[in-house]
């Protein structure tokens, strides 16, 4: 099953699966914040480092399973596989989107 996603999130997951750092980064607003693995990163330079590090370390592939809106956020559950213990796993991505559709907040858990 593949979820129907807002355009910016579909672009994000497609770029993530291609391991295309530039295309993933283009999905974020300039001051976006990401929380992942008990760390918080803010701004494009920090997000670039996070993307490059996690891509190299885990070689993740993500299949969005469902998407819904909750408290102004787009919540995506995705089956994630890669080189990490417990792969594959279903993770929840909580996206906040800016007025222009870019991601301005992301929490992965």
TrEMBL record:
Q: Which Gene3D superfamilies does this entry report, sorted A to Z?
A: 3.10.450.50
Indicate the segments forming the SnoaL-like domain, all copies: 11-94
Q: What is this protein called?
A: Nuclear transport factor 2 family protein
Origin species = Falsiroseomonas frigidaquae
Highest lineage ranks of the organism? Answer: Bacteria, Pseudomonadati, Pseudomonadota, Alphaproteobacteria, Acetobacterales
